[in-house]
Design goal:
Elements lengths: L1 H31 L15 H10 L3 E12 L2 E13 L5 E4 L1 H4 L4 E5 L5 E10 L4 E6 L1 H6 L8 E2 L10 E6 L7 E12 L5 E2 L2 E2 L6 E4 L11 E3 L4 E9 L7 E5 H14 L5 E2 L2 E4 L16 E6 L4 H4 L7 E5 L2 E2 L8 H9 L6 E9 L5 E9 L1 E2 L7 E4 L4 E5 L2 H6 L8 E6 L4 H5 L6 E5 L2 E2 L3 H12 L5 E7 L2 E7 L6
Parallel strand pairs: 7-14
Antiparallel strand pairs: 1-2, 1-4, 2-3, 3-6, 4-5, 5-6, 8-9, 8-13, 9-12, 10-11, 12-15, 13-14, 14-15, 16-23, 17-18, 18-19, 19-20, 19-21, 21-22, 24-25, 25-26, 26-27, 27-28, 27-29, 29-30
Length: 477
């Protein structure tokens, strides 16, 4: 009995001591400010949750060194750049941004232990600004290197105000972590491009105040469970810690296609969409009904199918396309683009007729493959120019007819093309009597014509007119 009483008294005293410490921590700052709190009561260590999250993900974060090529005045120039990435599986695959590795001529992965490994591009998708890179596993095994990989979370569970960590290599400073919160879970950008390539058309972004700077691109945004919930992509240099990450669920949808096809095939019908906010009453429609077709691309499947600007799109193949707010536009675009390329799609539209009467119509269009305005550039050395293939998207953007040819993007000063009068923006249509289809054909012809000593004609389209330029072999520098 005596021992039991002693244990009970000891427990009471321990509880009183704990309550006394807690009471002191609360009262002392009220009396004399933080300086009155003894140093042993204040912890300057990171929270165990932050340490746990970093321990799980940081060993999987890598620096990516790339060599890229650009053209200045028709002359190729290689330059180095850096970014970040995160290893996502035991096969040594690294997830990063398209603008980091998607156009790289050489890729090198720097592991957390500073070991460097060669890598190759598996596939990329500039529409979501994502790329997948493969580390050289033979090199890793031969050198007995080790790596860890991160766990992918679920970005649909991300909440406003949730603490997050951004890990990467800002300005080349490896193994850097910044902390913040989710400022917005569904940030929308309209007509976004990075390095000229369209991106973010089919997804919204996670916004965070965790600092994201140049070099952070491609690194992971993680929650305190140590799961990757986003890929850091961009910051606003004019703002204070205003950064944006691609939700990891977007990457989950893209990765299988990159592994299988090296790219993502999407459908195009040629619609520019606008949310219905403030327009529902004008069109006599219930709220949360349909999406406004702001414009229809010239010569697009939708144009050929009879869709008009200012029609209200109610559904696609029976799937409702309700879009009242800007944040909902991306999901409608994504659903349209997910239809099989070349398939027939039923568009239910509501159209205002004469007398402000509304009429519903079902219109059928055949989808085309979605392509970028920008195509890869190729150097035509004998002429001293750089060209890219014409895409239908470029011709539509320029409001031009569908024609064949290649676009001149850069002319070297003093070259044979420069001497003949060729300019940036010219479209090469014919060499002699041969019509030009693509840059590969042009390269073969230019190599062949370089061996002749006779002048030959090159027909270019400049603005609305066609011009004939005379190329004289040996006239260029």
């Amino acid at each position: 009995m005596l021992k039991r009483l002693r244990r009970s008294a000891g427990s009471t005293l321990s509880c009183r001591a704990v309550w006394g410490v807690l009471l002191a921590v609360w009262i002392l700052p009220q009396l004399g400010g933080c300086a009155s709190v003894p140093g042993w009561m204040v912890s300057d260590k990171p929270s165990w949750r932050t340490q746990y999250a970093l321990a799980r993900v940081s060993p999987a974060v890598v620096r990516i060194n790339v060599v890229m090529r650009d053209f200045q005045n028709g002359i190729p120039e290689n330059f180095r750049a850096i970014g970040s990435g995160v290893i996502i599986d035991r096969q040594g695959r690294v997830l990063t941004n398209f603008h980091v590795a998607g156009r790289a001529r050489r890729i090198e992965i720097v592991l957390p232990d500073q070991e460097r490994v060669r890598a190759t591009l598996i596939g990329s998708d500039h529409w979501t600004d994502l790329a997948l890179v493969q580390m050289d596993m033979a090199q890793i095994h031969a050198r007995h290197l080790h790596f860890k990989w991160a766990s992918l979370g679920n970005s649909s569970h991300v909440q406003l105000g949730q603490p997050v960590l951004a890990i990467g290599t800002p300005f080349g400073l490896a193994r850097t972590v910044t902390r913040g919160i989710i400022s917005n879970t569904d940030r929308f950008f309209n007509a976004t491009t990075i390095d000229g390539y369209e991106t973010g058309w089919f997804n919204n972004w996670l916004q965070t105040d965790a600092a994201i700077n140049p070099g952070n691109s491609g690194g992971p945004l993680i929650n305190l469970r140590g799961q990757v919930i986003g890929i850091n992509t961009r910051g606003d240099p004019t703002a204070n810690n205003l950064g944006f990450a691609i939700p990891i669920n977007v990457a989950r949808r893209v990765i299988p296609s990159l592994l299988k096809f090296r790219k993502v095939a999407r459908s195009y019908v040629g619609l520019e969409l606008e949310p219905m906010l403030g327009l529902s009453r004008f069109y006599h429609l219930p709220a949360q009904t349909g999406v406004l077709i702001r414009s229809v691309d010239h010569n697009s499947p939708a144009s050929i199918g009879g869709v008009h600007a200012l029609d209200v799109l109610l559904s696609v193949n029976g799937h409702p396309t309700n879009c009242r707010f800007p944040e909902q536009v991306s999901s409608v675009r994504r659903y349209i683009s997910s239809q099989p390329v070349g398939s027939r799609v039923a568009l239910l539209v509501e159209r205002m007729t004469d007398g402000s009467k509304m009429q519903q119509k079902t219109l059928y269009v055949f989808t085309q493959r979605l392509e970028s305005v920008i195509a890869p550039r190729h150097q035509i050395k004998p002429w001293g120019i750089v060209v890219r293939n014409l895409t239908d998207a470029y011709l539509r953007q320029q409001q031009m007819k569908m024609i064949r040819g290649v676009l001149v993007t850069s002319v070297q000063s003093g070259s044979i093309a420069d001497t003949a009068g060729m300019e940036d923006g010219d479209i090469i249509r014919r060499v002699g009597s041969i019509g030009i289809v693509d840059s590969l054909q042009l390269k073969v012809l230019a190599d062949r014509m370089a061996k002749t000593k006779k002048p030959y004609a090159v027909v270019v389209k400049r603005g609305r007119t066609e011009r004939t330029l005379v190329f004289s072999p040996g006239s260029g520098s």
